[in-house]
UniProtKB/TrEMBL annotation:
<dbReference type="InterPro" id="IPR052654">
    <property type="entry name" value="CS_Sulfotransferase"/>
</dbReference>
<dbReference type="InterPro" id="IPR027417">
    <property type="entry name" value="P-loop_NTPase"/>
</dbReference>
<feature type="domain" description="Sulfotransferase">
    <location>
        <begin position="4"/>
        <end position="73"/>
    </location>
</feature>
<comment type="similarity">
    <text>Belongs to the sulfotransferase 1 family.</text>
</comment>
<keyword id="KW-0808">Transferase</keyword>
<dbReference type="Pfam" id="PF00685">
    <property type="entry name" value="Sulfotransfer_1"/>
</dbReference>
<protein>
    <recommendedName>
        <fullName>Sulfotransferase</fullName>
        <ecNumber>2.8.2.-</ecNumber>
    </recommendedName>
</protein>
<dbReference type="InterPro" id="IPR000863">
    <property type="entry name" value="Sulfotransferase_dom"/>
</dbReference>
Amino acid sequence: MTVRLTLGMYYVFVLDWLTVFQREQILVLRLEDYAANLKKTIKKVFDFLSVGPLSEQVEAALTKRPMSNTRRAKDRSLGPMFPATRTLLSQFYQPFNSKLSSILNRKAFLWSYS
């Protein structure tokens, strides 16, 4: 099974983007927030882009089939993640998440699975 640890090192990507764009030109969202309240997240994006407000038709189209971050059936058959693996990954990503939280000045990016 392929492991892509670098995908979770978000702060590295944000630092790259900040070499090209000003902080005010970048909107960083969390998938958890999107999944919890799609309508609010889409409104935030439209406001950020100054293209709002959402019409009822656009809102209906955008919220009709929300994206989800679910495991493939093949992967689900493997069962849940081992607690030791979750702990190891949490410890591995903690410094990267701390840097991301600091760059964005948002504690929401200090993910914790404890």
